[in-house]
C-alpha cells in the first residue's frame, strides 16, 4: 500500500523553518503554551475538551456530561447541554463588536458589499423569521444551493438560529446531483439564487433547481430565490418566492431556538468508495468547538485580522473556515464570488491588496495554477499586510510550498498546512504558527486533544519512523461526524469496522518521521482528489454506465501537475470499439453526460475504449493495471491472471 517512491521523495525534503521571532512573540499560543495544552489533553482528553467547551462557548444550559461513549462508535459530546450556534457566532459579539465588519464581499464583476456584525445579525434574524413563516421548523432540512455571496452565510446562520438542519449542495453540481441530495435529505425548502457569476459566465442555479424539482424532490414545499444576477428566470406560482420579498417586513430580531448540544447543525454530502454520496452529519456544540478552537489556534485570529478562506461554502472548508469558525471568533472574513483568474491572473492578489487581507487560506491546486503565471503577477500587488498563509485539500508539494513562502509570503509568513476532512469537521493535524517549526510538505503534528496513529493492514500500531500505513484517530473528538444521514450501519462499516471499532479510519495513508511529523501519502480507497475536491471513482463509473451506449466503465486517477489528480475513464461500449471521428464524438458526448450527471468537476480528462476491461478470471477489474496504463507507463506487473491480455494494448492507446 505505501508508495515508496513518494516516501523517498518527501524524505529528501529536510528543510526546517522555525517560527520567526515576530511569530513567536505575537502568536496567541507559543511553544510552552502548546506543550502545556498537549500535556493537559494527554492526561484526560475529555476533561480538556470540556474545559474549552465551557470557556469558549456560550451555553443556555451548561452541560454536565463530557463524553458519552455508551453507544460507541456513535460518540456524543456535552450531551445534556443546550446552546444556539448563531448566538455563538453573532449575538455574543454585538456588545463589543457590533460595528465591526463581519463580512467583506467582492463579487466576480467587482461589486463590493460589507456587513457589520450588527447588520449581519439583523439579516440572519429577518431570514430566520421568513423561514419560520414559510413553515420551516426545528429539525427540518433546508437545502442551500447558492453562489459564494453573503446570503449563503446568512442562510446557514438563519437555519442554525431556528434549529433547521442545512445541507449545502455546491453550486457547481448538476441538477441531477442536486436532486439526489435533496431526496436523500428529504428537504422541505431550497434556498437558491437566480444565478451566480463564475469564470466570466452566469451559473444558472435556479434553472438547475427547476430541473431537479421536475424530476422528483417531492418533499420540497418552497423555493426561496435570492436575486444576484437579475437575469430572467421562471418563478412557479405558490412554490417559488423571492428572498427580498419574503424578508420584507420581518423583524430584525428572531428568538433563537436553543438546541441540544448533539442536535445536527448540518448535513454535507461527500464522496466515498461507492456510487452514492454520504450525508455527513455534524453536531451543534462539538462542531462549533472544533472550528472555534482551530481558528484561534491555527489561524491565530486577532481582532484586526482580515481572514480570507477561498473555499466555497459548498465544501466543508467553507463551513468551518468561512461561515462558522471565524464568526464565532468575531473575525472579519472576506468572501469572493469569482474564479482566481477572472478577469486577469492577478485577481486573487488584487483582492488581497484591496481589502488588506492578513490571513489567506487556499488549496495547493490553486497555488500551483497561479504559480504558472510567474512571479511578476503577484509582484504587481501590495501583499505586505499578509501575515499567515494556509493550505488545505491535498499534500502540498515542496515546490509549491516554497513559491507560496517566498513569492506570496515574502518569507515573512508562516504556512499552516492543515490536514483534516469533511468528517473531522475541523483541523486535525496542523502547525501552530508561533510554536511549530515547518517542513515543506508535512502537515506537522496533531492538535492538542487529537490522537493520531499509523497502523498496518491488521490494525497493529506502526511505531517505526518513516513506515507508511493507515492513518487512524484513536480517541473521539468533539467535532467528529456523528453518523451518515439515514445510514448508521454505513457509518460503522466505513469508518470503524475494519479494525474492530478501535479506531476512526481516515482513509488516507501516511507515515511519521523521526521528529513525529506526519506526511500524508494519499487515499487508500477508491477516492480521487481532483483540484482538492473529493470524488469517488465509483460515482463517475455509475454516471458513465447510466449512459445508454456504455456497457462497462472503470475510472482511475492519474497524477496531474495542477489538479493533483486527473480522471481517466476506460469504457466498453455496447457497440464496436469506435475509431476516428466517431470516437471523438462519443468522447465529447460522454464527458458532457458526466457533467450533467454530477457536475463539471467530474468530467473525465481522458476516455479510452476497449473491447473489455482487464479482469482476472474471476471477473475482478485489475485497477492497478489501469493506473499504470493511465500514466502511460509500460506494464511490468504480472498479467498472467488476466483473462485476456490483448485488451491491454487497446487500452494503452490514447
Ligand atoms: C481528504 C479530505 C478538509 C477540507 C478539504 C478536503 C486530503 C485534505 C490535506 C492536507 C494532505 C489533505 C486527504 C483527506 N487532504 N487536507 N493538508 N494534506 N492531504 O476535504 O473533501 O473531506 O477530503 O483530503 O486525503 O482525507 P475532503
Average of pLDDT: 95
Q: What is the structural class?
A: alpha/beta
Shape: globular
How would a crystallographer describe the biggest sheet?
Answer: 8 strands, mixed
Count of helical segments?
A: 22
Across the major sheet, the strand order is: 12-11-8-6-7-14-15-23
What portion of residues is helical?
Answer: 25-40%
* CATH architecture assignment name of the largest domain: 3-Layer(aba) Sandwich
The small-molecule ligands in this entry are: 5'-O-[(S)-butoxy(hydroxy)phosphoryl]adenosine
Classify the beta-strand content into a percent band. 15-25%
Question: Strand tally, please?
Answer: 30
Radius of gyration: 24 Å
Q: What is the class of the largest domain in the CATH system?
A: Alpha Beta
CATH superfamily of the largest domain: ANL, N-terminal domain
CATH topology of the largest domain: Rossmann fold
Number of domains: 2
Which ranges are low-confidence, i.e. pLDDT below 50, for 5 or more consecutive residues?
A: none
User: How far apart, in Å, are the first and last alpha carbons?
Assistant: 28 Å
Amino acid at each position: 500500500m505505501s508508495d515508496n517512491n513518494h516516501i523517498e521523495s518527501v524524505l529528501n525534503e529536510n528543510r526546517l523553518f522555525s517560527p520567526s521571532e515576530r511569530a513567536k512573540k505575537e502568536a496567541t499560543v507559543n511553544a510552552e503554551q502548546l506543550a502545556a495544552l498537549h500535556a493537559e489533553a494527554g492526561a484526560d482528553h475529555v476533561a480538556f475538551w470540556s474545559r474549552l467547551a465551557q470557556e469558549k462557548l456560550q451555553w443556555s444550559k451548561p452541560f454536565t456530561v463530557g463524553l458519552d461513549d455508551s453507544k460507541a462508535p456513535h460518540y456524543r459530546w456535552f450531551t445534556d447541554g443546550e446552546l444556539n450556534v448563531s448566538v455563538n457566532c453573532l449575538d455574543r459579539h454585538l456588545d463589543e463588536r457590533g460595528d465591526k465588519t463581519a463580512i467583506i464581499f467582492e463579487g466576480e464583476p467587482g461589486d463590493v458589499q460589507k456587513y457589520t456584525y450588527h447588520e449581519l445579525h439583523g439579516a440572519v434574524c429577518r431570514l430566520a423569521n421568513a423561514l419560520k413563516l414559510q413553515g420551516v421548523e426545528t429539525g427540518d432540512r433546508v437545502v442551500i444551493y447558492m453562489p459564494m455571496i453573503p446570503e449563503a452565510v446568512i442562510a446557514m446562520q438563519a437555519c442554525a438560529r431556528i434549529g433547521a438542519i442545512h445541507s449545502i449542495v455546491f453550486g457547481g453540481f448538476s441538477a441531477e446531483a442536486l436532486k439526489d441530495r435533496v431526496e436523500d435529505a428529504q428537504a422541505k425548502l431550497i434556498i437558491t439564487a437566480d444565478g451566480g457569476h463564475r469564470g466570466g459566465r452566469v451559473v444558472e442555479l435556479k434553472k438547475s433547481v427547476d430541473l431537479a424539482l421536475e424530476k422528483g424532490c417531492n418533499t420540497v414545499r418552497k423555493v426561496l430565490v435570492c436575486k444576484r444576477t437579475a437575469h430572467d428566470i421562471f418563478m412557479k406560482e405558490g412554490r417559488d418566492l423571492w428572498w427580498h420579498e419574503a424578508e420584507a417586513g420581518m423583524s430584525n430580531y428572531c428568538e433563537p431556538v436553543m438546541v441540544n448540544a448533539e442536535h445536527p447543525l448540518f448535513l454535507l454530502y461527500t464522496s466515498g468508495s461507492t456510487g452514492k454520496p454520504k450525508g455527513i452529519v455534524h453536531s451543534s456544540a462539538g462542531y462549533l468547538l472544533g472550528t472555534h478552537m482551530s481558528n484561534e489556534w491555527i489561524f491565530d485570529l486577532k481582532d484586526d485580522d482580515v481572514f480570507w478562506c477561498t473555499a466555497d461554502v459548498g465544501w466543508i472548508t467553507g463551513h468551518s473556515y468561512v461561515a462558522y469558525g471565524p464568526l464565532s471568533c468575531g473575525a472579519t472574513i472576506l468572501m469572493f464570488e469569482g474564479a482566481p483568474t477572472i478577469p486577469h491572473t492577478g485577481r486573487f492578489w488584487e483582492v488581497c491588496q484591496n481589502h488588506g487581507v492578513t490571513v489567506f487560506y487556499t488549496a495547493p491546486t490553486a497555488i500551483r495554477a497561479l504559480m504558472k503565471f510567474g512571479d511578476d503577477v503577484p509582484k504587481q500587488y501590495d501583499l505586505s499586510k499578509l501575515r499567515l498563509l494556509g493550505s488545505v485539500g491535498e499534500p502540498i508539494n515542496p515546490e509549491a510550498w516554497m513559491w507560496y513562502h517566498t513569492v506570496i509570503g515574502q518569507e515573512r509568513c508562516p504556512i499552516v498546512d492543515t490536514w483534516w476532512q469533511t468528517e473531522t469537521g475541523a483541523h486535525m493535524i496542523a502547525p501552530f504558527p508561533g510554536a511549530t517549526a515547518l517542513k515543506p510538505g508535512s502537515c506537522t503534528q496533531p492538535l492538542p486533544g487529537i490522537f493520531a496513529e499509523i497502523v498496518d493492514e491488521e490494525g497493529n500500531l506502526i511505531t517505526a519512523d518513516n513506515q507508511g500505513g493507515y492513518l487512524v484517530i484513536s480517541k473521539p473528538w468533539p467535532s467528529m461526524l456523528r453518523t451518515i444521514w439515514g445510514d448508521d450501519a454505513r457509518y460503522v462499516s466505513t469508518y470503524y469496522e475494519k479494525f474492530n471499532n478501535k479506531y476512526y479510519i481516515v482513509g488516507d495513508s501516511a507515515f511519521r518521521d523521526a521528529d513525529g511529523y506526519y506526511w500524508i501519502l494519499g487515499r487508500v480507497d477508491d477516492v480521487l482528489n481532483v483540484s482538492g475536491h473529493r470524488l469517488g471513482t465509483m460515482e463517475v463509473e455509475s454516471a458513465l454506465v447510466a449512459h445508454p451506449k456504455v456497457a462497462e466503465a472503470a475510472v482511475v486517477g492519474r497524477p496531474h501537475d495542477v489538479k493533483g489528480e486527473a480522471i481517466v475513464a476506460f469504457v466498453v461500449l455496447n457497440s464496436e470499439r469506435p475509431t476516428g471521428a466517431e470516437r471523438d464524438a462519443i468522447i465529447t458526448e460522454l464527458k458532457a453526460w458526466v457533467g450533467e450527471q454530477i457536475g463539471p468537476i467530474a468530467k473525465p480528462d481522458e476516455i479510452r475504449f476497449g473491447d473489455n476491461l482487464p479482469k482476472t478470471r474471476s471477473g475482478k477489474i485489475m485497477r492497478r493495471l489501469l493506473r499504470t496504463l493511465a500514466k502511460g507507463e509500460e506494464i511490468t506487473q504480472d498479467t498472467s491472471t488476466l483473462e485476456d491480455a490483448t485488451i491491454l494494448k487497446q487500452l494503452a492507446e490514447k
